[in-house]
Write a structure and sequence with these properties.
This protein has eight helices and ten strands. The chain is of the alpha/beta class. Strands 5-4-3-10-9 form a five-stranded parallel sheet. Strands 6-7-8 form a three-stranded parallel sheet. Strands 1-2 form a two-stranded antiparallel ribbon. Helix 4 runs parallel beside helix 5 and helix 6 runs parallel beside helix 8. The longest helix has 21 residues.
Amino acid sequence: MLVWPPRPLFDTTVTHDPLLIAGKSYRSRLLTGTGKFKDLEETRLATEAAGAEIVTVAIRRTNIGQDAGSPNLLDVLPPSRYTILPNTAGCFSADEAVRTARLARELLDGAPLLKLEVLAETKTLFPDVVETLKATDILVREGFEVMVYTNDDPIIARELAKRGCVAVMPLAAPIGSGLGIRNPYNLRTIIEEKTVPILVDAGVGTASDAAVAMELGCDGVLMNTAIAGAQNPVLMAGAMRKAIEAGREAFLAGRIPKKRFANASSPMAGLIE
């Protein structure tokens, strides 16, 4: 019996390629935020469409139990199904970030995983590297598993890994800008020198940006605005999922080298006259 389309002679998908963070294995390399959606139902649907297993929550902006009288994000994204990654968004000093981290651990029954974010100013939302380093030292010493937002400086990325961060998360472009990857060369250097997972955090605008990050060799991508700010967030979430998977497989497959001139697919020698 003719089967159409024909079955491939070998599996063309990657079946076992887990993302490892702090000793835990994840199938999905797409991490998503939970802010900026119109309501909790849209948050739930977009998260499901993205296939995310790790979802990040701004402790200073989102109710996960602090306010008993308000809707609770954990009702639609339960910790039994997702790894909740609290973050210190909105903090502008090491002291603020450490206090917020301690509150997050208390609210999440002692869970140590944390996304550290210490901002320098409101205009660019670039990280304050000095305060980030201070906060990192304190939180690592207190047993937190720190995934850290930083700039795309290979030297700082290396230093944060040395200080005990379980993942380093350089920006691709300013938070929420949608500009895509502005400096692939720095990212490539960070990836080549990595001792912990490297995940792009901030600046992704559309699916092609996510694919480029993965093709460079990033271990994953965290995004919020690119999905929540889309005209159809749930559809965009699905697109991002596919882009992450395609980019990862392209990286593992190994692209052809770039050449200045043509290289015919078939040999030029021995052509029939």
